[in-house]
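Hey, I was hoping to borrow your eyes for a little while. For a while now I've been wondering how a particular protein folds. The fold is given in discrete form, as structure tokens running alongside the sequence. Could you read through the record and tell me how the tokens relate to the sequence? Take your time with it, there's no hurry, and the full record follows here:
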Amino acid sequence: MNDAVATTNKPSKLYTRTLTFTEVTVKMDKRGMPYANFKADTVVKSGQKAGEKINIFGQVFGAAYEALKGEIVVGNTAKVMGFQDQRKADEENGISAVRSFVVRGVPKAKEEVEQAAA
């Protein structure tokens, strides 16, 4: 894989976020599968910026895209689950480091989690 698009290999922590989509672009990957890049507003849950509304960049691929494509619409709000990803910079090719939120699906309801544990 080209270093310009390689991501960090640290284990990723899953986060639940409520996103309000402000920009959405649907594209096709090399295999002809659709995916979406988006910008969305979300509220920081903890830390120094807790309660602050921020705009983040994100992506959704594969089965997660298929399950959520009707929800990923400008102006729509959706609760999603995903992880933070960091693309490495490649200054020679004009690529800066980009931090993005990669959506993996929707969080399970508390009842579903309790049933699965039983």
